[in-house]
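Q: Here's a chain of 352 amino acids. Please give me its 3D structure as tokens.
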Amino acid sequence: MNRDVNTEKNPYFVEKLKTFEIRSRSVKELLRDMANTAYQGRALGEVYEIIVDMIRDPDNTIFLGLAGSMSTAGMWKIIKWLVEKRYVDVVVSTGANISEDIYEAMGFSYYKGSPNVDDADLLRYKIDRFYDVFASEIDYRKMENLIKEFIYTLPKGSQYSTAEFLHLFGKYLNEKGIDCIVSAAYRAGVPVFSPALVDSGYGVAAVLAVRERGHNIVLDMVKDFNQIVEIGRRAKKMSAIYIGGGVPKDYVNLVTVMQTLIDYMEKGEETYKSLEYVVQITMDAPQWGGLSGATLEEAVSWGKVSPKAKKRVVYVDATIALPLIAQALYEEDIERKNAPNFEWLFKSVSIS
């Protein structure tokens, strides 16, 4: 073997790793320096750089997939800020994340807890536990009752997509001075979709409304999906930020798949309108075969992610990555240009 390798001609020695130096620096500088190191430190830095690129790219519709229990972990104001800055254009969330922020916005508190407690004792005190976070079950019910009272303002039997329902709820909360993710989204004109909305306090509230007064509403999930697909049809280009995985990630992914299927149905030809920038913050591994851990490279095979996309996954707890990324974006202070307008989506939605 020739050990006298000319490194100048070696195709694998392209960019030198830079050893991390201790010095005074901002968070945005920290992440950029981490992007020149290795392992998940490099991945986190590269995720940040891709997010900056997608925000700076004009005519780009940015989807945010929000899974997990971020609001109970103190992360919801980050999401609210991203919406207000229009760093994200469409939010696809679990029902938990857009209800458990309301709990705190109503003036209730989450408390530092511990997983090393007697949960039967917590039950006696009516304390709900989210791993190492405690919440009052009584106050949680007040949040669910607030949602129920909103449902009573809607016509009995009325039908909505989740985006329409949450747009109206955002208006309702905004008028009450309850500042949370959906009220911020209402003010910013950002649609919020929640394909598993009833798997949360919203479902509890809706069933209570039916059983208490026979007051039912209908969430039309086909209409819901058709609306987010139409957002994709109108977008010049699409990108995504996934916090966790699950249903929110797949809902956005399927928007890209539908572009191909609709084109084939209408024109008889297959075209691909895939994500051009995409990042994911997750702790899920790919070898179990689930969508949450599925790699972005795998998504290329479906046409969900462009083969030329800027893409990166970082395997880290989102409660570590998200504050660092948000703080760096705050320091970066990017002015968003040509954010999409969704007035067409809510034009026909009103409370009669």
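Q: Can you summarize the key feature?
A: The CA atoms of residues 75 and 322 lie 8 Å apart.
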